[in-house]
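pipeline stage [seq->struct] | target=Triacylglycerol hydrolase | organism=Sus scrofa | residues=97
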Amino acid sequence: AGFCTMMGFPLSEGKLDQKTATSLLWKSYPIANIPEELTPVATDKYLGGTDDPVKKKDLFLDLMGDVVFGVPSVTVARQHRDAGAPTYMYEFQFAQA
């Protein structure tokens, strides 16, 4: 979530609404490369399952994590695979006890 601080996202309040999330995603266009007309669709897909503004903030961080890390990782892995290189992807998860 630290990367969102560097991007200047106002998440210090610990909560987020749908409209602000959509606006922040659009402001991230140079990184996200999601057209303006699709930003509401993307935020609704990630954040639409709750009305809780704290949960929405957490889900927005998930969205941005996928945009910044997940999608580029899969893109590069596919390119390596298509070039014939042995390619592996791993998913690491940590659960606090």
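stage status: PASS
auto-comment: The radius of gyration is 15 Å. Residues 2-82 form one domain.
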